[in-house]
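Workshop exercise sheet. Pairs work together: one partner reads the sequence aloud, the other fills in the structure field after running the prediction. Swap roles for the next sheet.
Pair: D.N. / O.F.
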Amino acid sequence: MLFMDVHENLTGVKAADVAEAHQKDLAIQDQYGVDYRQYWVDEAGGRVFCLVEAPSAEAAAAVHKEAHGLLPDHAYPVTEGV
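Structure field:
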């Protein structure tokens, strides 16, 4: 399944920090059968969005938890458009 997970209220979030966290996700994602495809950073709004293919939202969150501890506030199932 494809999910968009959303991290909110990240005052002072910087794209460079998110890039580092994303690399940590990529390093362990295979252990959970997860594929973090892409992310977006809204520095001004203090939000991060992660597009992830995973067997469940819980599996995707487990990668974040182990990799860097930054759990999403929401995870929405999504359908990829053309």
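Discussion prompt: Residues 15-28 form the longest helix (14 residues). What would you look at next?
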